[in-house]
Amino acid sequence: LEARLPGVAPDAAPASVAILGAGIAGASLARAFADLGLRSTVIEADRPGAGASGFAAALVTPRLDAGDRSIAALYASALERAATLYAAAPDAVLSKGVLQLEQAPRDAGRHAKVAAQDVWPEGAMTVLDADACTARLAEPVETGGLLMRDAMAVRPAAVLKAWLAEADRIQATVVRLERGDGRWRLFDAAGVLVMEAEGVVLAAGWGAAALMGEPVLSPVAGQADVVEGVEGGPVAWGGYAVPTGQGLLYGATHDRGVTDPVSSEAASARNLATVAPRLPELATRIAAAGGPTVSRTAVRATTPDRLPLAGALGDGLYVLGGMGSRGFCASPLLAEHVAAMVMGTPSPLGRDLAARVSPARFTA
Ligand SMILES: Cc1cc2nc3c(=O)[nH]c(=O)nc-3n(C[C@H](O)[C@H](O)[C@H](O)COP(=O)(O)OP(=O)(O)OC[C@H]3O[C@@H](n4cnc5c(N)ncnc54)[C@H](O)[C@@H]3O)c2cc1C
Prior knowledge:
By secondary structure, the chain is an alpha+beta fold. It is 31% helix and 28% strand. The two termini are 29 Å apart.
């Protein structure tokens, strides 16, 4: 085994890396490359958080899988890494501990199985009965839930600010990538060369679909609403309610196949209707406060197996995306995996987990 100093890239590592997209995936990559001793360049079409990573708050919650141990292990590792890194980012953590309420009768058994999985640190997952959920939420609920101690709510803007500071930045929309002489050339719609780089990582959320050329990603548009001056959460069921610091973010809608969503009062009504049956007192407080002051939409990029894409697409070309609804949990660890692949350093993922997220499972 080759001995390497931490933070020192091996000779074969690229001298220049372009990251397309300044959402949580791109920001996580900027941080991960900096950790490996490389200052990358993030190319963003609009502004940081312009896509799905720009809501006022985000839940950092793992995908719960009672049946597939390796998926559970992947998300347990991702949550542990994300929680550590968010705790170190100034002003990023809004609240620790997230309650996942039972949504269907089978969830009680499913939550018990999840809590018993050996992938979680001691005491990280606790099944609560209806009384304990009622006490935690300060309103009567009729079901139990799973208290995820290490899950959290974060302020995306604070995370993006801290981590994107570790990269150079270019504002441009890349529409074409060309390979030649061991380098990638990135062009905008006018045919202007935006940048040349030895390594490129597509971290453009739903925008990566057009650049990948393979029909792997599917769009699921969504709207979330913010009401000022109302406290609650963080709690999730089919919907979610997350404190923002000044108010509450709640929702969200899921509209498959929609790529160009516009926020609407109809979607706000659907979001309130998601809250009302599970947390009627919270829904009443939202309505009494005058309803949402901010409604925002974005497009989630999803994959057929609902696992992210993290790995190589071709020579010097990589992807970190397909985050679905869990980008804030999965991105920090998977960015370290992709950065390690690019730089030729050891990955934090084992071979099995790397295969589960590899784009080759769809493109090979
Ligand atoms: C309503 C809603 C609520 C959500 N809530 C949560 C939550 O609580 N927790 C959670 O983990 N996830 C949540 N998600 C999902 C989460 O937002 C995504 O998983 C995550 O933001 C994806 O991050 P990303 O960096 O891959 O993509 P994005 O955040 O979409 O970033 C992609 C960036 O790339 C840029 N870009 C696109 N194309 C190009 C191009 N050609 N050239 C240059 N730049 C380009 C875009 O402008 C954008 O800034 C939610 C999603 C929605 C819609």
